Automatic annotation (TrEMBL), chain A:
Name of the protein: Cytochrome C
SUPFAM superfamilies: Multiheme cytochromes
Record keywords: Signal
Cleavable signal peptide: 1-23
Automatic annotation (TrEMBL), chain B:
Domain of life: Bacteria
Keyword field: Signal
Protein species of origin: Geoanaerobacter pelophilus
SUPFAM superfamilies: Porins
Protein name (Swiss-Prot/TrEMBL): Uncharacterized protein
Signal in keyword set: yes
Signal sequence extent: 1-37
Length: 144, 442
């Protein structure tokens, strides 16, 4: 019953969308300016998009919230970018794949075999988004 | 009563079938291309060779090919149709007696066709994809639809098979959900979302959530999300963050999160998150509250100095504090360098250590070099070792805008390995630089 109500809500929402006569333009499919390196969106955007400043020290921690606006992210990134870290099955950790860019915020730098035992105890929830239901081949070699 | 846990095994599609599906999608798109105003084909190939020894000191030489491909066409109505494919394959070039890994492996990370309309931010996507909508941060084989509705509302929905890595663990047969949001883009976005993953498994999920992003002024940015587990009838997680940026040189941010382990880990399939492994798995009675903050100064566009701290408080375990400072300099396509020191102060011995890191990278005309030094110094020895140390030296040469060869070598000495040396060689070839790559890992 609960499923039925939920599906009805979604279907009605989509129907209303299709009937929406006063269509507004979509966000640009592709960012109009080429961006080099980590962008500080404030350099051009004085509105809310300035909050997407990738150089901000807390951007890496907050990107999970911004990801609920996927059409914004897609202006510069494809899903290839997401899958570097949020992989389905992966054998090379991101920080190994991009050792030529040590300034980039990437998980599991250095000897993570030792460190993961500590991080896993401190906050196991931080592992879940990438390793909870997928990308866990390496996990199960020890955690059977 | 094993009958409630049907051990139905879902077999992943063979690589050939995955590749055929991706190729078919691409062909269908190309067949439609003449009607389109413009078609762009681009992508990237990364060929990676790793050399090292495993825990049994046996030589491992796996060779990987990562291929990403994107085909994009704009239609005469301003919409965009695209096909995207990303996957990898690996063969072992070392001794076949090495049984740690299969001699070959492959995976399709994503493969989908997507249409984005010129109006209403309408997006329709079909195939293997990564969906991030409120409570959902999931990969699925299925469809995703999204559109703006009137008066600032928007809605999205998705449905398909959940993609899980280990077919012997059951992640459900069907996953579906959606999100309804309201935005005034200058000021805020709020959303409610739901997700259900079901099947004849013990790992079903029913999650409901609310999320928001407030930015009433340029100087203030507040984000948050709360997620409710409808199966355990309790909150899984609350996570909130605020950033205050009074000017370009100064930034203060804080975050707080609370996680109820019993509710958060209930739907996970990886065995380490089981509740039934005394002393090794997850304690369902545990609750974590983490409170953190960062203060950052940016005297110039390139330079950043920051101090940060996080306090971990538990219902069962002992609390701990993590704090430190970081200095970073970055000038795009020229030079970057940084140094950081962090201290973990916990009640338990294994939660008392200090982390040090120094890195630098320099680009010359067509060449680049990098150095990264990381040391974790434990107050009490682990396996008789007080330091986990890693040194990495890398370098690369760009033959032209499309082709780059890079290599790095790293040395580690840590509680698990004595004097471990590993090397990696990577050849990157980017297709179609002119159109700057759909499908490329930008």
């Amino acid at each position: 019953m609960r499923n039925g109500r939920f599906i009805l809500l979604v279907v009605l929402s989509l129907l209303a969308s299709l009937l929406y006569a006063c269509a507004s333009p979509s966000i640009a499919r592709k960012h109009p300016e080429a961006v080099k390196g980590m962008p500080d969106c404030n350099e051009c955007h004085s509105d809310s998009w300035g909050a997407m400043n990738h150089k901000a020290v807390d951007f890496y921690a907050k990107h999970k919230f911004y990801a609920s606006q996927p059409n914004v992210c897609m202006g510069c990134h494809t899903q290839a970018f997401c899958s570097d870290c949020h992989a389905h099955k992966e054998e090379i950790k991101p920080s190994d794949k991009y050792k030529d860019n040590p300034a980039r915020a990437l998980p599991h730098r250095g000897d993570y075999l030792s460190q993961h035992k500590i991080d896993g105890r401190m906050n196991p929830a931080s592992c879940v988004k990438c390793h909870g239901r997928q990308n866990n081949e390496r996990c199960i070699t020890c955690h059977r | 009563m094993e009958s409630h846990r049907t051990s139905k095994t879902r077999r992943p599609l063979p690589l050939a079938l995955q590749a055929a599906g991706g190729t078919l999608a691409a062909c269908l798109l190309l067949a439609a291309a003449p009607a389109m105003a413009e078609t762009v084909v681009s992508g990237q190939s990364d060929t990676i060779l790793r050399i090292g020894r495993n825990s049994e000191k046996k030589l491992e030489v796996p060779a990987y090919e990562y291929l990403r491909l994107g085909i994009l066409s704009n239609d005469s109505y301003g919409g965009t149709l695209s096909a995207n494919f990303g996957g990898w394959g690996r063969v072992n070039l070392d001794d076949r007696s090495n049984r740690d890994r299969k001699s070959y492996e492959s995976d399709l990370q994503y493969g989908y066709i997507s249409y984005q309309a010129a109006k209403n931010n309408i997006v329709a996507t079909a195939g293997r994809q990564f969906v991030t909508e409120g409570v959902a941060s999931d990969r699925l084989d299925g469809i995703y639809l999204r559109s703006d509705i009137a008066a600032g509302f928007a809605a999205s929905a998705f449905a398909g098979n959940p993609v899980i890595s280990e077919p012997n663990y059951q992640g459900g047969d069907v996953i579906f959900g959606g999100r309804v949001s309201h935005s005034m883009y200058k000021y805020y976005t709020v959303g409610v979302s739901a997700l259900r993953s079901s099947g004849e498994t013990k790992n079903n999920r029913e999650e409901l959530g609310g999320d928001f992003w407030f930015h009433p002024a340029k100087e203030l940015d507040v984000t948050g999300r709360s997620t409710f587990n409808a199966l355990t009838n309790n909150w899984m997680e609350h996570a909130y963050a605020v950033s205050l940026v009074p000017n370009d040189m100064f930034r203060v941010s804080a975050d707080v999160s609370k996680i109820n382990y019993k509710d958060y880990f209930a739907g996970q399939t990886t065995s380490v998150f089981n509740f039934s492994l005394p002393g090794r798995g997850i304690d369902p009675n545990e609750e974590l509250t983490a409170v953190g903050g960062v203060v950052a100064l940016n005297p110039t566009k390139e330079l950043s100095v920051s101090v940060d701290m996080k306090h971990y408080d538990y219902k069962v375990a002992q609390p701990a504090n993590y704090y430190g400072a970081k200095l970073a300099y970055a000038k795009p396509e020229s030079y970057s360098a940084g140094a950081s020191i962090h201290r973990m102060d916990g009640k338990q011995n294994k939660l008392r250590y200090t982390e040090y890191r120094i890195y630098t990278a320099k680009e010359f005309h067509n060449a680049d070099v990098s150095l990264d030094l990381i040391d974790v110094h434990y107050d009490s020895a682990v396996n008789g070792v007080r330091d986990a140390f890693t040194a990495t030296v890398g370098g690369g040469y760009k033959f032209n805008e499309a082709l780059r060869l890079g290599a790095d070598i790293d040395y580690s000495k840590n509680p698990d390995y004595d004097n471990e040396v590993r090397a990696l060689v990577k050849l990157t070839y980017a297709f179609d630089m002119k159109y700057a790559g759909e499908g490329r890992a930008k």
